[in-house]
Amino acid sequence: MEISKWKSVLMYFKIREVGVLIAVILLGLIFSIANREFLLPGNLLITIRMASELGVIAAGVTLLMIAQEFDLSVGSTFALAPMISAILYTNYGVPVTVATLIGLLLSLVLGFINGFITTKTEIPSFITTLGTMMIYRALVLVISHGFPVKITSQAAISSVIGGSIADVFPVAVIWFLVFTVIGWYILQYTAFGNKIAATGGNKSAAIAAGINTTKVKILLFVLVSFLAAFSGHIECFRLGSVAPLNGRGLELEAVAACVIGGTSLLGGVGTVIGTALGVFITGMIRNGIVLLGVSVYWQDGFLGIILITAVILNVYILKKRG
């Protein structure tokens, strides 16, 4: 009984996450052989910190992709929500805690708009969020006049969201782990997680089973938007300012991390742990290329190669399982 149980567990991890973990180990070995500084604790911490802000968003994007939807507006939300907070605090003297809460609440509205338009008009979410991506980015540029806005504060909320412990360990890493665990728990142990998988796996069957797929998708759009805004505030408080072009390209990086981590572009299949490993791979590539002295222009190229490889492997695994 116990042997068969462990076999099923190993088979689950073989399909979902072990391949990504092997890729992480291989990349670590390659970069460490090329540059011994790669595996130093300080550099590993930098790599994790680089991945954390993307990881917070990717945890939500994974759930949305499993439900067979996309959100290309996360990069714009990443900039817009903290920009609102920064302007309220810096230009209008609103307490930083209140300003931050307003920025985060705004993100819920932005996510609801994405979800409502997508589900009620049945426009593909790719098109809906492509449009809102441009709208939200335009709003950032208009309200900021194209200039960065400072938001330096000694308030506790700035340290809790974007500070560091003992000036060494970034709080962003903790938030990354927290949201990853929450996403994993939702998928594995909640009825809502089952509804997400059913919605993306077979929408007609989900509706027949009494699942309100419209509600599920709208809630996920709202969640993803909130996580994008929260991640934007992490960077905002870490740097002490918000630039209008923050988050550009983040939407594609989030999707890439999810796909590298084993989430299917067709919906119904995905794992937040795999996405966390995929996010770590992106951080390793960006950090490793810098250490090797390779032009940073190659970063997206390497990520593209890994993304295509991951998609090919995912399709192969799905065919084998089918």
Descriptive notes:
With about 325 residues, the protein is mostly helical. It has a single domain (about 40-320), classed as ABC transporter involved in vitamin B12 uptake, BtuC, CATH 1.10.3470. Helices cover about 75% and strands about 0% of the residues. The protein has helices spanning about 1-35, 40-65, 75-90, 95-120, 125-145, 155-160, 170-190, 190-200, 205-210, 215-240, 250-260, 270-290, 300-320; strands at about 150, 165, 170, 240. Helix 2 packs parallel to helix 7 (about 170-190) and helix 2 packs antiparallel against helix 10 (about 215-240). The longest helix has about 35 residues, at about 1-35. The two termini are about 25 Å apart. The mean pLDDT is about 90.
Quickly list its features.
single chain; 322 residues; mainly alpha; ABC transporter involved in vitamin B12 uptake, BtuC; two-stranded antiparallel ribbon; two-stranded antiparallel sheet; 2% strand
